[in-house]
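A note on notation is needed here, since sequence and fold are reported together in a single record. The reader may check this reading against the record printed directly beneath this paragraph.
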Amino acid sequence: MIYIFLALVAIIVVAIVASDILGSRPDKRGENPFAYEVDEYLEVDPSLVLYEETKNMKLQSYEYRGIDISGDSIFIVADNFLQVIDLSGRELANFDLPESPRNVKVMGDSVFVVYQKSVSCYDRAGELISTFTPVGDSTVLTSLAVVDAYVYAADAGNRKVHRFSRDGELLGNFGGKREADDLHGFIIPSPYFDIVNNYDDLWVVNTGMHTFENYSAEGDLRGYWENTSMSIEGFSGCCNPAHVAVLPNGNFVTSEKGLVRVKVYELSGKFKGVVAGPQKFNKEGHAPDVAVAGDGDIYALDFDRKMIRVFVEKEL
């Protein structure tokens, strides 16, 4: 009787396993109740769209990495070169770089090129001025901001912000902290980690927390705002917003990956409106890098379509 019982149990187990395997075939699966559905968020209420696309500039088939604007010049880094074009798209200069860049930031006559593990400063003629002190093997630098006498570099690999003097000496770093008993610091799940200068204040985007955090020169938290939501007013996914720029009035321009969209927020974190909704970009595409011209026009570097797209605020 024992043997018969064990044989019956074995048959039942085999039947259950076989049924589970057959039921797991792609053509046999039912709907996943936990599926990440975004279709309902692809359309944006037209009344929320504050900008219109007025022109775009087609780029060559390179791997573009970053964009910045200074005066009437657009600075773009790609593959192993730095390109300068005017606001109409005409090339002004093109300089070779020693390795693949990750981003670019222009401040006055200084052009800072961010590489994965270091930063180099060039003049506008492409001559090397200085190379910053390396900060470690696990470093993955993603962004740079210049505030007063300091240059700050965001390091996604070490989840820290490094502070340098203008001539490249490493002065220290900080890992982000809200309160004395809060140890989470910067949560950076992927190499999207942006920092900006806004009204001579350093703002760090803690992408894993969907927060904008304002820090003193020494790395002390002075304030923050957070907005996590799948709706158009917030940020979703593992690490958003991916890229940030600042308008002349101090408002933030944000760019998101996954559900790709470009939006505007006040300095306080209040949602202002939409620059471009998901329908303007490739589905599940890359977040475009964003830069702002002196007149407030927004330039989006569309990595998927290899173009710079210009958005101008609508007239009321």
The radius of gyration is 24 Å. Confidence is low (pLDDT under 50) at residues 32-36. The CA atoms of residues 85 and 256 lie 25 Å apart.
